[in-house]
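Key result, reporting period 2: structure in, sequence out.
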């Protein structure tokens, strides 16, 4: 049984301790996990009726899954309609992650309208698609080297999520640098209470860090080995109300690459065509020559 990733212990009003998502910690902690726990810590200190609408963060050091992470919250501003929280994630006495959260008072929103781009209706729905994990296992059974298959190992680092790529072959093998865009259906496996808006918002931020680095590497020749890591991440929540228990379509596109850095833009859609969130991430991607055996 997968576990809910949000496990924070309150130390004082501005300090929290978090545990890793993986049931068998063995490697570097998933960045989206740290970001989402930081968001939860910020929410616990926020004024009533305020909701996160913008997130900006930096992934500074790789964290260890087996070691608890301390989240130190700083109250930057509590205004009439907006509030700012700044969160440091610390491990072994060093900051591994910095995040800033802007919150809006929902009651202050009046006489507004919604503008949204067109939903990518040409993308097949999640029903009938194969998950990234099942697809990887099939490819290995067919004789492919698991080390040469693309995509993050979500089975271990994010067990609470299921991913179904719209194009599994491109997801696992790439296109030799021809295509820079991919679509993923993502679902959180554990039912979330519809009234728990903090978990709903933190969970979509949690999954928003998935596979953007993989998309950033699409512009490379897929035969090359690559060192990949997220550097910074931004997200803007457009809809406070959405069903985190349903499938969410993640549209991702690499829009630029220079100086070893790829910039990836993303859009997260509900199944009924509403734009829930927009994201941008800068990923560090190096070409690495394969070792000679």
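The corresponding designed sequence is given below.
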């Amino acid at each position: 049984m997968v576990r809910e990733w949000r496990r924070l212990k309150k130390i004082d009003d501005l300090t929290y301790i978090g545990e890793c998502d993986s049931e068998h910690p063995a490697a570097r902690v998933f960045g989206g996990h740290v970001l989402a726990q930081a968001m939860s810590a910020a929410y616990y200190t926020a004024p009533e009726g305020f909701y996160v609408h913008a997130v900006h963060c930096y992934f500074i050091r790789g964290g260890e899954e087996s070691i608890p992470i301390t989240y130190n919250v700083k109250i930057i501003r509590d205004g009439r309609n907006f509030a700012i929280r700044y969160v440091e994630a610390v491990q072994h006495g060093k900051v591994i992650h910095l995040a800033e959260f802007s919150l809006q008072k929902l009651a202050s929103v009046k006489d507004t309208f919604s503008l949204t781009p067109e939903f990518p209706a040409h993308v097949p729905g999640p029903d009938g698609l194969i998950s990234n994990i099942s697809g990887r296992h099939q490819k290995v059974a067919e004789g492919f080297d698991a080390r040469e298959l693309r995509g993050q190992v979500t089975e271990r680092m994010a067990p609470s999520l299921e991913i179904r790529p719209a194009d599994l072959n491109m997801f696992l093998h790439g296109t030799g640098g021809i295509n820079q865009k991919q679509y993923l259906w993502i679902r959180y496996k554990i039912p979330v209470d519809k009234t728990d808006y903090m978990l709903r918002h933190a969970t979509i931020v949690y999954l928003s860090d998935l596979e953007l680095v993989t998309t950033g590497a699409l512009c490379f020749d897929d035969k090359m080995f690559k060192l990949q890591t997220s550097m910074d991440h931004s997200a803007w929540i457009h809809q406070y109300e959405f069903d985190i228990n349903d499938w969410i379509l993640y549209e991702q596109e690499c829009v630029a690459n220079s100086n070893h850095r790829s910039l990836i833009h993303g859009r997260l859609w509900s199944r009924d065509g509403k734009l829930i969130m927009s994201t941008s991430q800068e990923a560090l991607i190096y070409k690495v020559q394969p070792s000679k055996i």
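The mean pLDDT is 88. The CA atoms of residues 3 and 86 lie 27 Å apart. This case is discussed further under Risks and Mitigation.
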